[in-house]
Amino acid sequence: MDYLNSIKEYLLGLSSTYGVDPFIFAGIYVGAIPFFLFSMGWIVKNYRQKKPLILPVLSTVFFFISSYLYLIVAGENVPLWVYGLVLVMVSTGAVSAWKKIQGKIQDEVSE
């Protein structure tokens, strides 16, 4: 249990250093999940109906990176390596989401 308190103290210390509230970050991160999933479904629906994909794709990307946007906008003295890490995480997640969407589209096409 002392280990969890150490992690909490470390994160709160980072928040004072970088000016980002870890609870707000976590809230945005978790709160965006349903909207992200809805947006992915919207992409698949629009694809099936041969409608434009730009709005659902932009929505999906926004909800995927929303917590990181908070970090970048609200953060102070954030080291350059954090921006690189965020870029890697966003890129990895985007590739993963793209593969998941492609899989759903392939499932729809094969039916």
Largest sheet: none
The number of distinct β-strands equals 0
Specify the structural class. Answer: mainly alpha
Treating each run of at least 4 consecutive H or I residues as one helix, how many helices?
Answer: 4
| Straight-line distance between termini | 51 Å
Name the overall outline: elongated
Report the sheet-strand fraction. Answer: under 5%
Helical coverage, percent range: over 70%
Low-confidence stretches: none
| Rg from Cα | 17 Å
Q: Kindly state the mean pLDDT as a whole number?
A: 83
Strand and helix order: HHHH
SSE order and pairing:
Layout: H1 2-18, H2 22-48, H3 54-74, H4 80-110
Can you tell me about this structure?
This protein has 111 residues and is mostly helical. The protein contains four helices and no strands. Helix 2 (22-48) packs antiparallel against helix 3 (54-74), helix 2 runs parallel beside helix 4 (80-110) and helix 3 packs antiparallel against helix 4. It is elongated.
Question: What is the compact description of this entry?
Answer:
With 111 residues, the protein is mainly alpha-helical.
Output the keywords:
111 residues; mainly alpha; elongated
